[in-house]
Inverse folding.
């Protein structure tokens, strides 16, 4: 294959570009597409060689399973064994940023590589219209981890995807910035008590309030990976992070939060109004900006431990691990 064949195309989402993307996916290629959470790198979930290439492209550990994206509850039930609580959760939060782990059906066509050999499968129906249209066009579920190199800051904009993969992928469907800027919540329904394996946009309080389904948060000391998004060090910039900093030191850029700090080249404010949804939207976008500056470290303001602040703090804690 010549270099000309590998040239990356960035197309706005349209009927034509979705047709092009679906052909590439059915041919075994990976296509970057915007979810409402972060950008994903989508492949045919039943194509073993495409899954293997995806892991290689992302430098992703093979024991880290992928989220399988579907276009309906019925499609999810082709691959996972649902129960009444699944139907309640999916009926309440889908399409949306909730991934649900179910026992996998024995005759599932999903590649074992995509589930890291587990007997369970992580399923999600995205809210992103372009992603849903792509799944429907392909006619199969799509395995789609975040469109970044494993362990690095997640991509919330097409430029982030381009920075990571350059000409190593053929197509990015550019739909602008992601709505949330944080990954989906992952809930494990394979046994009780139901566990939130990864914190995300939706918290356990919201799940209980809307469905009366009780969940507990994962014990961080457990090391066995049973869900996407459980690597010890994750979401990390190349520069070291110093958390809960009141002010930056010499040699540090600053990720601020709250009304005290104005934006400058070396200080980006997640939310001057102390709005946690706005902070989540800006988190990965601003971390990448600061990571590209010449300063040697990044200091980060304290973020309140409430609502989305819990998820933001969880991401920052893991991003700061050495």
């Amino acid at each position: 294959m010549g270099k000309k064949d590998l040239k990356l195309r960035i197309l706005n989402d349209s009927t034509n570009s979705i047709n092009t993307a679906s052909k590439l996916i059915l041919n075994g290629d990976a296509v970057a597409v915007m979810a409402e959470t972060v950008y994903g790198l989508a492949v045919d979930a039943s194509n073993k060689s495409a899954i293997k290439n995806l892991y290689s492209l992302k430098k992703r550990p093979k024991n880290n399973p992928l989220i399988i994206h579907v276009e309906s509850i019925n499609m999810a039930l082709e691959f996972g064994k649902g129960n009444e609580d699944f139907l309640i959760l999916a009926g309440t939060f889908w399409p949306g940023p909730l991934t649900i782990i179910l026992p996998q059906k024995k005759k599932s066509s999903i590649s074992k590589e995509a589930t890291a050999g587990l007997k369970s499968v992580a399923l999600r129906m995205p809210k992103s219209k372009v992603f849903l249209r792509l799944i429907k066009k392909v006619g199969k579920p799509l395995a789609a981890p975040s469109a970044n190199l494993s362990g690095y800051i997640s991509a919330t904009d097409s430029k982030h995807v381009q920075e990571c993969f350059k000409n190593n992928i053929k197509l990015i469907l550019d739909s602008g910035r992601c709505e949330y800027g944080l990954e989906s919540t992952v809930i494990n329904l394979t046994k009780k008590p139901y566990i939130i394996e990864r914190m995300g946009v939706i918290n356990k309080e919201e799940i209980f309030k809307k469905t009366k389904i009780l969940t507990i948060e994962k014990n961080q000391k457990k090391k066995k990976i049973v869900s996407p998004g459980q690597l010890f060090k994750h979401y990390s910039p190349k520069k070291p992070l110093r958390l809960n900093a009141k002010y930056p030191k010499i040699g540090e850029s600053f990720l601020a939060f709250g009304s005290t700090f104005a934006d400058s080249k070396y200080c980006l404010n997640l939310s001057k109004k102390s709005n946690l949804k706005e902070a989540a939207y800006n988190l990965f976008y601003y971390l990448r900006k600061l990571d590209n500056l010449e300063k040697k470290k990044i200091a980060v303001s304290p973020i309140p431990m409430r609502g989305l602040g819990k998820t933001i703090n969880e991401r920052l804690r893991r991003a700061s691990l050495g």
Q: What stands out?
A: The first strand starts at residue 9 and ends at 12.
